[in-house]
Amino acid sequence: MEKILGKTKIDDWVAALSDHPQEVGRGCKAAEAATTTHWQVSAPVLEDGIWSYQSGSGSVQLEHSNTTQPPKGFSFPQREVFFSFEQIKGEPPKLTQKLPQATRHAVFGVRPCDGCGAVRMDKVFSDHVADTYYTARRSNVAYVGLACNQPQGINCFCLSVGGSPVSSDGMDVLMTDLGDRYFVAAVTDTGKALMAAGNSVFSEPTAADRKQLQQTHAEAIAQPQRAINNLDAAPAKLKASFDSPLWEELARACIGCGVCTFLCPTCHCFDINDENTSATPIKGNRVRTWDNCQFPDFTMHTSGHNPRESLGSRLRQRVSHKFQYFHENFGMPQCTGCGRCITECSVGIDIVNVVNKVAEHAG
Amino acid sequence: MINIQDMRDTARGLLTKKEVRAVIGYRRSTNGMLAEPVVITDPAQADELIWDPTCFHNLSLYLVEDRKFLTHVRKTADAPIAIVAKGCDARSIVVLMQEHYFERKDVYIIGMSCEGSGVLDERKLAAKGIRATDAAFDGDDFVFATAQGEQRIAAREVMADRCLECREPFPKEHNAVLGENKTGRELNAPFTALHRFEELDAGARWKFWEHQFERCIRCFACRSVCPMCYCEECVVDSISFPVTGQTSAEEKANRVRWIERSATRPENMTYHMTRVLHLAGRCIDCNECERVCPVNIPLRLLNNKMEREAREEFGYEPGASIGGPSLTASFLDTDPGKFIR
Fold first, then answer.
1. B338 by DSSP, 3-state: which?
2. In B, which residues are within 8 Å of A50 by CB distance?
3. Assigned domain for A276 exists
4. Which of A207, A219, A346, B14 gives a 20 to 30 Å CA spacing to B307?
């Protein structure tokens, strides 16, 4: 399904989605569908000096550069309660599972690198065992992507990790800015349903629209980006460089914070803790929170030994996971080239530079 | 005006004569026009060193890292380590020495006077719609290279607030120093940003901080970048619980956790309040914490508040003297006792 949407009509589409009872959703159960009637629309908003996804304004303006945080939190929130527990003395412990509420999110303005991020997150959370909590949320999230006619920042490199600024991977709908209107293409059945809900706000594309779309996409792909020199060689080069002294050198300025991973569209490591809310009787929640391979306690053993004590070994872990381990597991790099970890690093650690240097050093 | 070559020559000379074992300075990063920290040991690398308005970083953090590393490998240094330091950075080095983190002889300070200028606030530049590929000092101006050609802007228009309010843009503590001493230049009165914020009533301020702490993602960039946050173990990390073979599962589960991993508002607030209190009388307003925050939480307001309290109540200036008493470890008969009831 391909349509044209006048820029002034985007809020009419949003209104239609917000009001429209939604009947089909990916993998959702009938019971959930019956309790869910609307899409909650989220889109990038500039607040506190940063772009972030926010919902409820009813108005969507897609004039953003990419959001500081990727949209991964819609399906993998920073904090997820698994279950609550209660232990009254002499009684068996009472556990109550807390499945996420089935709110349907239509996320507008998702950039192609983050769409590709969703593809990778889906692999991680469905491989071998489907993660109940992730799946419950993910099945209720639809991504309405926006192609990048221009790179979003100076550190974009999607083209050199197998992506593209006009990629529809991971999207349900992909929109392309054609000046005064968007070219809107459904990618999945959910996408078709989203567009069907808007119905009359769209018009049929003309041959001229299609020609302009092709040209816009071609120009977008031709825009200069930063580059990983040889992606295909990276896994082997990294593997050969595990013991390289280069890692410590490249991580010399690293401060060991969590910016690079928390802002990454594909980092997914987590920690599980019990958070007590009452001591007598013992009550609380078992909670999953984001964790981070750059933190000092990430690999800390109970013995006090830390196999990844140095910042160099932590940088190696982050980069090797993106370009070697993930490739070994899923046949693609995990990194999608959004450039956030470079732009937001306060001390200049640069994943493009790191991969290129390590590869060069490995010979 | 500082000639960059003088700084490079100083670094090269120190390394050549082996007076220092390394120089911590700035070089051009691969992230656009920004500088990045670098540690050089070879005199030939001295020409990599740069000095421009993007030299934000308080490099004294790397003195702390160096000390931690030496302790870890059980080595003593055979020569001091040199560091390029602005006025604020030199004050933080003084605090670290006051706290006996290292001694004066361990460090060779290459002081850089900010003269009438300071470092750039990238957000102010972005707000002007300027995308620059290079930045340079030029007297009271910054000169930017852009796709449209050279652009000259009065430094005070895009300078960091902390630099506008800086009372000591000259590194008083130094071994060598470059640039003029323009202390007392007073671009903005001290605590201007704080005063402006405090015009809000208490209710509005509380709402403001509730909103800010809701947004924190607990990446700990603020803590990690802070030279004063050198504790071996931090309350937010769960590595401080000693575990032996006899530690039961229940003891492990019931260990005291001051702050949960969840990035929820109350936990975030506890984290930031703990940090700001630990920095009272120690924070020298380099404001790296606020600069590195990916979600722009205005942490400087909190640190400035503590700084002003210490100044007004106790006449205390952090980073003023290596041998002087520290705020929280000293007592004077003249200290106000009005909070003791």
1. coil
2. 294-296
3. no
4. A346
